[in-house]
Write a structure and sequence with these properties.
Elements: H1 2-31, H2 34-43, H3 47-70
Length: 71
């Protein structure tokens, strides 16, 4: 049950991220700021780095808890 909720939450967060990124690109295009538009298209908000870091930390913590519980 927990994994189903986690998958739905991750999917919902991804959709929210993509919609907000599209809105920011649209605002930059409407304002004529082509440099910001290209930067957003190339790198987004930079949240992917934080997501990877958080997943890595969760993986290490769960591995450590599993390892400690098996001893």
């Amino acid at each position: 049950m927990f994994w189903r909720v986690a998958v739905v939450l991750v999917g919902a967060c991804f959709v929210i991220y993509r919609v907000s990124l599209a809105l920011e690109i649209h605002k930059a295009r409407k304002a004529g700021d082509s440099e910001r538009e290209q930067r957003l298209r190339a790198h987004g908000f930079g949240l992917h780095r934080w997501v990877v870091l958080c997943l890595l930390i969760v993986f290490v913590l769960l591995t450590g808890l599993f390892w400690l519980n098996s001893r």
